[in-house]
Design goal:
By secondary structure, this protein is α/β, with parallel strands linked by helices. It is 38% helix and 18% strand. It binds iron/sulfur cluster. The site of iron/sulfur cluster has 11 residues, from loops.
Length: 200
């Protein structure tokens, strides 16, 4: 049985797909078998919307004010199920929706999906990962050549419509890279979150 919902550090997360258009060198999928209270996060086949809704119905959302779409995979690769299940969660439990994303969905879907996301998502966290296109390509190994600029564009546009938008990096980057990332975020007017890196 694969966990669609799991909790970690007092937050509840949605795992709706294992698909991803990146192959990040640091991806938690390659270093940890599971996250939080999940027992298995790998699907034999991605869940259907009905299976996602069933899992949500069985979860007690009492005490949680935010539902985070995260991984083992890039949630926007399962866009329809993301949109429909987030809508379901908002209507049924009145809960805020956060999307943790690589910010490449507009490339992946070959259209601007931000307006669709904005109907159900409240907060967006985008993995910035690196301060230059070259470093970004090396660390995230995306399917696309122009991914770095597309991710920045996504962040800039997301910042106009969501309640909160942030870029995220980890604190183990060299100091000069952290400062370069801070400048990128500042120039785009997007908040920068520096996360504590957690190895295994
Ligand atoms: S974008 Fe996320 S799920 Fe995809 S490879 Fe990178 S860290 Fe893993």
């Amino acid at each position: 049985m694969t966990d669609i919902l799991y909790t970690y550090k007092n937050q509840v997360y949605m795992n709706i797909t294992n698909q991803c258009d990146c192959r990040c060198t640091f991806c938690i999928r390659t270093t940890k078998k599971t996250v939080g209270d999940a027992t298995n996060m790998w699907f034999e086949k991605d869940p259907t919307l009905e299976e996602i809704k069933d899992a949500m119905d069985q979860f007690d959302f009492t005490g949680y004010d935010e539902l985070v779409y995260c991984g083992y995979g890039e949630p926007t690769c399962a866009l329809e199920n993301l949109l429909e299940s987030a809508k379901y969660a908002k209507e049924k439990w009145g809960i805020k929706i956060r999307l943790n994303t690589n910010g490449l969905a507009n490339l992946y879907h070959k259209r601007d999906i931000i307006p669709e996301l904005a109907e159900v998502v409240d907060r967006v966290s985008i993995s910035l990962n690196a301060p230059t296109a070259e470093k970004y390509q090396a660390v995230t190994r995306p399917q696309f050549e122009n991914a770095f600029q597309a991710m920045l564009d996504f962040g800039r546009e997301a910042n106009k419509v969501f309640e909160h938008t942030q870029f995220s990096i980890v604190d183990v980057l060299p100091k000069e890279e952290i400062e370069a990332c801070r400048k990128i975020a500042d120039d785009l007017g997007v908040h920068l979150k520096i996360r504590v890196f957690e190895a295994n």
